[in-house]
Amino acid sequence: MDLSNVLGSLLSEGQTIDEIAKKVGARPEEVQKAAKLSVPTLVEALNKNAKDEEKRASLNKALEDHSEDNVEDLQSFLGSMDLQDGQKMLGHILGGKKNQVESSISKSSGLSSSQVTGLLAMLAPVLIGMLGKKKKEENISKDSLPDLTGSLGKILGGGSGNGLMDMAKNILDKDQDGSFVDDLMGGFFGKK
């Protein structure tokens, strides 16, 4: 599975963004802006979960449960997706910070909180499905999940000095306290 193709579809203009925009009731350019904030935030949260031994077990189970999801056909996947399942995934990925993250993305992107909630509920299953499929294809063990989630960060530009993930890593946890939401509120998304 080519992770970069799927991620590219989530972040650039085109049918996928247009489809998501219709589903959340927003303009494609607003959805694209919100996706550029949301995808790195979710990937960074997945990275943190993969590095935590207790959360890694839960993430491993989720990836195994979604290893057959056909995320390569994003149009079809988005059309048949269970948004309640997406909400549950968000709860696991972001934990108690879910509402704060949604509020921050809303303030920055111009989408309403409910539109951001819908967007995140669509993005989470895509990311989990991508990782689940890749985990199965490459027979990746639970202990190697940090490498798998880190691969998404590399695609988004981690390590290049100017990519989305570098920005997310540098800004999401400015004070190095292990919690990025406090930093999201004042840094990454900016204040209006």
Describe, in short, the structure shown:
With 192 residues, the protein is mainly alpha-helical.
Walk me through this protein's architecture.
The C terminus is likely disordered. The chain starts with a helix and ends with a helix. With 192 residues, it is mostly helical. Helices cover 73% and strands 0% of the residues. It is built from eleven helices and no strands.
Number of strands: 0
Question: Ends: how far apart?
Answer: 39 Å
- Secondary structure class reads mainly alpha
Beta-sheet strand percentage?
under 5%
Helix proportion of residues, in percent? over 70%
| Cα gyration radius (Å) | 15 Å
Q: What is the string of helix and strand elements?
A: HHHHHHHHHHH
Number of helices: 11
Average of per-residue pLDDT values: 82
What about the largest sheet? Answer: none
Low-pLDDT runs:
166-176, 181-192
State the shape.
globular
Q: What are the key terms here?
A:
mainly alpha, globular, disordered C terminus, 11 helices, 192 residues
List the helices and strands and how they pair.
Blueprint (H helix, E strand, L loop, with lengths): L2 H9 L3 H10 L3 H24 L1 H13 L8 H7 L2 H12 L3 H12 L3 H25 L7 H11 L8 H9 L8 H8 L4
Helix pairs in contact: 2-3, 2-8, 3-4, 3-7, 3-8, 3-9, 3-10, 4-8, 6-8, 7-8, 10-11
